[in-house]
Amino acid sequence: MPFNLRLLLPIFVFTFLLSACQPAPKEYKQTLLVFGTLVNITIYDTDASKAAAMIKAISDDLNFMHEAWHPWKPGPLGRTNTLLAQTEWFSANPSVMPLITLGQQLWHDSDGLFNPAIGHLLGLWGYHQDDPPQGPPPSANEIKKWLSQNPRMSDIETKGIRVRSSNAAVKLDFGAMAKGLAVDRVIEQLKKNGIEHAIVNAGGDLKAIGRHGDRPWRIGIRHPRQDGSVLAAVEVNDSESVFTSGDYERFYTFEGKRYHHIIDPRTGYPAGQSTSVTVIHPQAAVADAAATALFVAGPEQWQDIALKMKLQYVMLVDKHGQVHITPAMAKRIDWLGNDVQLKISQP
Ligand code: AMP
Ligand code: MG
């Protein structure tokens, strides 16, 4: 060993021993079955009793939101839907008001492609029942009739908790945004309780705060056409959320044809040009609604909607497997060696 290295050896050993004596940062993980999905919560670098108490509080909160925001079971949103159909003023449960007001804004910003007033259409496609839909799909006449009724978020007026719809065909379903809003609420609650490092992952849609030890949180984005495999990885910064809408999440096959759950409100049929869309945004509710809206917009129109929604980080995989992506998103993505065809464009 050269002389200078021999001198440095005790310093290396000392540093190693010092780091070995430090308690390893603690990570608490829990999986909950709430909001119709598996929610993984990871809290980093806090004590065990605080982490356990937080996880319990989060679980109760998520269960509350799931019940309050359920579109077709009895509960605050279910009652709201019954009364909206009567086109008279009524007092809505306050728990549904943030959904309605944010839903109206995002409906407007997405040119109506995110439209939570399409509950009746989702029912026609079989998505308002406990059992998975099996078909048949709705008839062309049923779709045509629904289109002529044209339910939109602008049909709803609000004054405080007083609410009225001028269109009896409005039925609210926040399936494309509620999970995002719930994740925002949970992260807020963690922050208020002094948690600095955590990630809440609801079936691949997530929001993070802080870091994972000495590195940022890093997550995988599912391959839309290869079950169980990851298309790309991305680092998630403090208070960022990553949401993906995919046609593989809920679908059924009827007489050899596949019908998925993301519906184009302009045609009444499942949107056919995208297979998945990922959006990164500070607000999880916005990321969630935007991913759905851009999925509907498809490879020809996504830039218009991304511009209107002021989105910086977007990735859309179209039905041919081509990846349409913003320059800012392209810089952040690690393709993990996957062979992808990129079309980079600034909205
Ligand atoms: P996501 O997985 O966030 O894209 O949400 C999909 C869910 O949102 C569906 O299961 C429906 O409940 C609902 N949905 C489908 N299409 C739309 C749409 N165009 N606008 C708003 N919600 C929709
Ligand atoms: Mg969504």
Q: Tally of extended strands?
A: 17
Residue-averaged pLDDT, rounded?
A: 93
CATH first level: which class? Alpha Beta
User: Largest beta sheet, briefly?
Assistant: 9 strands, mixed
CATH topology: T-fold
Write the CATH architecture name: Roll
Q: Give the strand line-up of the largest sheet.
A: 1-2-6-7-10-13-14-15-17
Q: How large is the radius of gyration? A: 23 Å
Sequence stretches where pLDDT stays below 50 over 5 or more residues: 1-5, 7-21
The helix fraction, in percent, is: 25-40%
Small molecules (ligands, ions, cofactors) in the structure:
adenosine monophosphate, magnesium ion
Shape: globular
CATH superfamily: ApbE-like domains
The number of domains: 1
Task: Describe this entry's structure for a reader.
The structure is a single chain. With 347 residues, the chain is an alpha+beta fold. The protein has one domain: Roll (T-fold). Helix content is 36%, strand content 25%. It has 9 helices and 17 strands. The strands form 4 sheets. It has a 9-stranded mixed beta sheet. A 3-stranded antiparallel beta sheet has the order 3-5-4, with no helix packed on it. A 3-stranded antiparallel beta sheet has the order 8-9-16. Helix 2 packs antiparallel against helix 7 (178-192). The longest helix has 25 residues, at 284-308. The radius of gyration is 23 Å and the shape is globular. The N and C termini lie far apart (59 Å). 39% of the residues are buried. Bound molecules: adenosine monophosphate and magnesium ion. Adenosine monophosphate binds at residues 113-116, 118, 122, 127, 173, 175-176, 245, 249-250, 261-263, 265, 288, 291-292, 296. Residues 113-116, 118, 122, 127, 173, 175-176, 245, 249-250, 261-263, 265, 288, 291-292, 296 line the site of adenosine monophosphate (AMP).
